[in-house]
Design goal:
By secondary structure, the protein is an all-alpha fold. It has one domain. Helix content is about 75%, strand content about 0%. The protein has 14 helices and no strands. The chain is globular, with a radius of gyration of 18 Å. The relative contact order is 0.21.
């Protein structure tokens, strides 16, 4: 990996991690289209530490309250009746599916799951599902009315993003809207839900990203650090923008973008311009 590739892929990760358009899918497409090689699942997971650090900073106060409330809840029945205590547990419950499935299917995620035919298809299919949830979801319930069922369903939706092209935020937002949550509530819970799983995955795959002798782009330690820092800065700005955007706008912009990108990738594959693997 050279420094241009490092900067470009760090920017792509930061720009796309929180938008419902699949950061892993974009890293795969951009690395293949412009650099002729796959940046790899490990690179994606580690740079996500930068974007998740942006979430930790942006939601630092919310996270501190949830963690403190969760621990206090073991000693106080009154605390266990609060909204914050319930949300803390729902983040834990919603994290279980992606943790279990990620462990069971790690090899497939890093190999066959990165086929560009699959990524193009998931971009289109899950983009249309996002549009359907926007169109038909009731969008009546705020975050305070989140239920255990919502946490479980959105947790499994997040787990679908183990397949590049699905989008972690896209999956959880789609499920949230389908369950009747308001758009801001679905987006906010999506951010909180991502923290445990993404941080754990990134830390777990740090050794893999520096493995030598394998296929694809291989960064140095310095390049990995720079890409992660870029992802952090750009990701922080993307969080602020998305939270403001969904207050007043639908998610159809992302739906049409996903469909157009998926069709574009299919056209490139069909003409032999890029390789699927």
């Amino acid at each position: 990996m050279n420094w241009l590739q490092t900067i470009v892929l760090g920017l792509v990760q930061g720009l796309t991690e929180f938008l419902p358009i699949s950061s892993s899918g974009h890293l795969r497409i951009v690395s293949e289209l412009f650099f002729g090689a796959d940046a790899g699942a490990a690179f994606t997971a580690v740079t996500q530490l930068g974007t998740e650090a942006a979430v930790l900073l942006y939601f630092a106060r919310d996270i501190a309250v949830l963690v403190a409330t969760w621990f206090r809840g073991f000693r106080s029945a009154a605390v266990r009746a609060t909204h914050d205590y319930k949300i803390a547990w729902l983040v834990i419950i919603g994290t279980i599916p992606i943790g279990v499935l990620g462990f069971l299917f790690e090899d497939s995620i890093q190999t066959t799951g990165r086929n560009l035919w699959l990524i193009a298809t998931t971009l289109i299919v899950f983009g249309l599902l996002l549009g359907a949830s926007e169109r038909y979801g009731a969008q009546l319930r705020p975050l305070e009315r989140l239920r255990v069922r919502d946490g479980v369903v959105m947790g499994f939706a997040q787990a679908m993003a183990l397949v590049p092209g699905v989008s972690r935020s896209g999956g959880t937002i789609t499920a949230g809207l389908a369950l009747g949550l308001t758009r801001p509530a679905a987006v906010r819970y999506s951010f909180l839900l991502a923290i445990p799983a993404v941080v754990a995955a990134g830390l777990f795959q740090i050794p893999d990203v520096f493995a030598t002798g394998g296929p694809g782009l291989q960064p140095t330690v310095a390049q990995m650090v720079v890409a992660t820092l870029i992802a952090f800065g750009v990701g922080y700005a993307a969080i602020a923008w998305l939270l403001r955007y969904v207050q007043r706008h639908s998610v159809y912009l992302f739906v049409w973008y996903r469909v157009a990108l998926g069709l574009g990738v299919i056209a490139l594959l069909a003409t032999g311009t890029i390789s699927a693997t």
